[in-house]
Design brief:
alpha/beta; TIM Barrel; six-stranded parallel beta sheet; hydrolase; GH; glycosidase; beta-N-acetylhexosaminidase activity; beta-N-acetylhexosaminidase
Length: 269
Amino acid sequence: MTAQERDLFRDLPPRGVILFARNIKDPSQLSDLIAELKAILSPGAVLMVDQEGGRVARLKPPHWPALQPAGSLRTAEEAFAHGRALGQMVRQAGFNCTAAPVLDIRVPGASDVVGDRAITGDAAAVAHLGGEIARGIMAEDVLPVMKHLPGHGRALVDSHVALPSVAVLTDDDLLPFIANNKLPWAMTAHVVYEQYDPLNPGTLSLIVIQHLIRERIGFKGVLVSDDLAMGALSGTPAERAVRALEAGCDIALYCPGDFEDNRAVLEAL
């Protein structure tokens, strides 16, 4: 961390931090960084990593083992073991939260931004195996974050690049989230759901968050936005963060390392 970042976190402490591959060199360096963060942040701050297994991995070989993608899991035993291995890796590295599991269903012809990150196209199997992954993660005293509510699997466009629009969400899209609505944390999707709110992406939509996520899905836990720097959204970083919280997100997640943008977001909140 720079001296500027240390001062910012002391003056305007965030709810937590998320680290990416750019922040991680090796176990020793990561341990020092996390110790420094813990000394500055509030007690109980969230230390998150975006670690799913497969192609979404910030803890990588040669220092950490590669985990299979969720799309290769077939049984409850495999899913629980996967979650436990993931949770153990994350906990031993110093984190207390990981952005997994993905509970989107795999839809043929959709953007491969989800692809093999999704367990399967069978909603009941996603619900069951995804729940087992989360249970395995929690067995290691790590917070899982199910994603991306209320469903990203049907999107034809990668929300990292542009704003996807989904005409109709089906019961299959919602089933995995409803079945796991007692999980502690969840993440939104930057997708326009035309049947609910044709004007705003889910992350910034009071209708989607309150009516669909909170009421229909029944999720009452901590709702964190997907990365507000993604290409799907418009406006300044601070504007995006304010809108996400106004819509009903509990935490605004802003992932780039730009100091001025980070400061603007924290000052706005």
